[in-house]
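WARN no homologs supplied; continuing
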Amino acid sequence: MGIKKTELEFLAGLKGPRHWSEEDARRALSLQEASGESRAGFARRHGLRATRLAWWQARLSEWEADDAPSPSLAPAWVELLPRDVVRPSPSVSHTLPASARVRVGGIELELSVLDTAAAHFLVELAERMGLR
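OK structure emitted
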């Protein structure tokens, strides 16, 4: 049984330098596995790079092994120091005496000085992640 036309079109769309999402990678790897072909053979047949498939396989395995969320905006942790930092007023232009650390998936952001722009960024990030 061959690959359906829609799947062939999907694979054709992955050629070249186009950014792959996690969903793209999972789908491509699933098709490769279902084909029974080697990664290299599948990649060659569909104009993909075997190294990209291998990179995504390793990355997805790493995420699953770490039991970490996919690269979404689900934070692993957010820490504001001191804990009583409040939303800054837009008129405040001085540096606030605080620091902050945020970890989202495998990315950690640490700010040693929490100025107004950084505070606004962290508040907006927290709101978009549903933390406020």
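Residues 82-88 have pLDDT under 50 and may be disordered.
OK
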